[in-house]
Design a protein that fits this description.
alpha+beta; Jelly Rolls; 8 helices; 14 strands; 28% helix
Length: 311
């Protein structure tokens, strides 16, 4: 079961402090986060501070883009040497053992990328506002992880090595995902799914889902269970690099989106928005306990390896 953590805070500030939250409450929340990421790798956060109206706006403007003809969207396609822009249906294969995924995506890695302002005028402003709001939440989570892991040397350690979020020389990526309604003509390939089994690559991920559902998370017994949408919540999971950093204390859990068995659900499209958080590209990730459970690596090196398998 995926735990739910109350992030109640009247005021989230850019320095990740909450004016109405005591130190003991911070430590309690930090302990809950560590327990969730140690046992499941996922948790729901409620009262997280990202306005629901802003989430709705990003879903709406994203859908306007995905509803455009493919030749228009192709104008904003992601180049092979970049993580900005649109990826077409079956462009990505997150599980290399399956056929390519039945999904589209639009990636925002920095505000300087090319935006479809002519066809969806509000898209850039909505995404940037959303990225800024999510970043405040991210920095608070990162500080609480340091508290929960008892990093006495520097409580802001994780925040400091994620300084490039939203900048052109960073790899953190806001990704809007669209899973179109599935064809009934038998053209789905054997073994093909909407999103193949994978763990995320970076430090952590925020995921906002619509009410259609379909995401499944692998539990500690190796069984995939439904991660049902929880109204008003953001689903948070850790990625490979945080698992490496913590020498497997925290788990980067595999997850997927299968083809629905229900014929009615096959005719429904699905949306989600993920914010993938990565350390600064050249920061060297070493095991925090001083062990050599994993060889040191940089975010840039690790992403290069993973993208080569997915595209």
């Amino acid at each position: 079961m995926i735990p739910t953590i109350d992030f109640s805070c009247d005021l989230l500030t850019p320095d990740s402090s909450c004016s109405n939250v005591t130190q003991s409450e911070n430590e309690h929340t930090a302990t809950q986060l560590i327990q969730a990421f140690n046992s499941v790798g996922f948790c729901y956060l409620v009262n997280h501070g990202v306005p629901s109206a802003l989430v709705d706006d990003v879903f709406k403007t994203s859908r306007q883009f995905f509803d455009l003809p493919s030749d228009v969207k192709q104008t904003y396609a992601r180049p092979t040497n970049s993580n900005h822009g649109w990826a077409a249906l079956e462009r990505e294969k997150l599980n290399p053992e399956r056929p390519a995924d039945l999904k589209e995506s639009f990636n925002c890695q920095s505000v300087s990328q090319v935006w479809p302002l002519v066809v969806v005028p509000d898209m850039k402003s909505r995404f940037i506002e959303f990225l800024d709001s999510c970043s405040v939440l991210v920095f608070r989570i990162l500080d609480l992880l340091a508290v929960g892991l008892k990093l006495e040397v520097d409580r802001h350690f994780f925040k400091k090595c994620h300084s490039q979020i939203g900048r052109s020389d960073g790899s953190s990526t806001l990704r809007s995902l669209f899973y179109p309604r599935l064809p009934s003509d038998g053209s789905i390939k054997p073994g093909q799914v909407r999103c193949g089994e994978h763990s995320d690559y970076g430090t952590l991920t925020l995921l906002f889902q619509d009410d259609i559902g379909g995401l499944q998370v692998q539990n500690t017994a190796g069984v995939y269970v439904d991660a049902k949408p929880l109204p008003g919540a953001v689903l948070v999971n850790i990625g490979d690099l945080l698992q490496r950093w913590t020498s497997n204390r925290l788990k980067a859990t595999k997850h997927r989106v299968l083809i629905p068995e229900d014929e009615m659900k096959k005719g429904l499209s699905r949306q989600s928005i993920a914010f993938f958080i990565h350390p600064d590209d050249n920061f060297v990730i070493k095991c925090l306990d001083g062990s050599l459970t994993y060889e040191p690596t940089t975010n840039r090196e690790y992403l290069k390896h993973k993208f080569a398998l997915s595209y």
